[in-house]
Design a protein that fits this description.
Elements lengths: L2 E3 L2 H13 L4 E6 L5 H13 L2 E6 L19 H11 L3 E3 L3 H5 L16 H4 L3 H4 L3 H16 L3 E5 L3 H13 L5 E5 L19 H22 L6 H11 L4 E9 L13 E9 L2 E9 L2
Parallel strand pairs: 1-4, 2-3, 2-5, 3-4, 5-6
Antiparallel strand pairs: 7-8, 8-9
The structure holds pantoate.
Pantoate (PAF) binds next to strand 2 and helix 7.
Length: 286
């Protein structure tokens, strides 16, 4: 049975128990509204650790003032059932007050973790200025509370994953980060809790993102096309029914733009459909 824990005190007690027994702990940090993408992370955690903790917390510090914090889907009952089916041991779902003891970034009373500027002033960070500070802060808190050996993150949030790996390295955190591949619907649409906001028509329009990803991948792999300017034009055309926020080809080590495809190039898209901000990406090889 999966235990639902809402307080830090209770979580710490449980973690202490696990540690005393010498058990390994896997952590899957989520904001809930769990879908197959999350389930794949939980499955991996369950298969690689003695105990698995899934956090379900819509983290206020990573949302901007005009973003969807209030309407972000909250489906704890279903999340608990889903996590239980896969064999998670704990679902940790604190309230914002429990997590931040009444503080948020806005009131200037919180210590927070600031990822390097050169990693957060690019891609999603351009339109979401405090987002990655909020992510790094809550993830650090979750690492400290869970004392996990391994933590599982999806490649769909490629920039987030890179920033967390850098944070773990720079701050000598004692945890292993396990990257997990993007999970897609049969249509190709990358799984996201925000897909829930889309109408049937919106879902069709949103397919332009994955279509663009696969078309560019095919042009690079099979067409031997390496010129980023040409590939960007192809992508823009395919995305013309969406509101493109960015189309970027960057070195996945440092997020610097590249002009020619080389190994470890991240091709990343952010675009809005029906006002819903969607992201997708793929790692390209030379
Ligand atoms: O990827 C997410 O769902 C969130 O950014 C995370 C890592 C759970 C932190 O709130």
């Amino acid at each position: 049975m999966t235990l639902l824990i809402k307080t830090i005190k209770e979580l710490k007690e449980k973690v202490k128990e696990y540690k005393k027994e010498g058990l390994t702990i896997g952590l899957v940090p989520t904001m809930g509204a769990l879908h197959r993408g999350h389930f794949s992370l939980i499955e991996k955690a369950v298969s690689q650790n003695n105990r698995t903790i899934v956090s379900v917390f819509v983290n206020p510090t990573q949302f901007g003032p005009n973003e969807d914090y209030d309407k972000y889907p909250r489906t704890l009952k279903e999340d608990l059932q889903g996590a239980e089916k896969i064999g998670a041991d704990i679902v940790f779902s604190p309230s914002p007050d429990e997590m931040y003891a009444g503080c948020t970034l806005n009131n200037n009373y919180l210590t927070y973790v600031a990822p390097p500027y050169e990693y957060i002033n690019k891609l999603c960070g351009k339109s979401r200025p405090n987002h990655f500070d909020g992510v790094a802060t809550v993830v650090t808190k979750l690492f400290n509370l869970s004392e996990a050996d391994n933590a599982y993150f999806g490649m769909k949030d490629a920039q987030q994953l890179l920033i967390i790996r850098k944070m773990v390295k720079d701050l000598n955190m004692n945890i292993n980060i396990v990257p997990c591949p993007i999970v897609r619907e049969d249509s190709g649409l990358a799984m996201s809790s925000r897909n829930n906001y889309l109408s049937q028509n919106g879902r069709k329009t949103a397919l332009a993102l994955s279509k663009t990803i696969f078309t560019v991948e095919n042009l690079v792999k099979n067409g031997n096309i390496k010129d980023v300017r040409y590939l960007t034009d192809v992508a823009l055309k395919l995305l013309e029914d969406t509101e493109v926020e960015y189309i970027e080809f960057v070195d996945y080590d440092n997020l610097e733009n590249v002009s020619t495809i080389k190994n470890n190039t991240l091709f990343a898209i952010a675009a809005r459909v029906e006002g819903v901000r969607l992201i997708d990406n793929i790692l390209l090889e030379e």
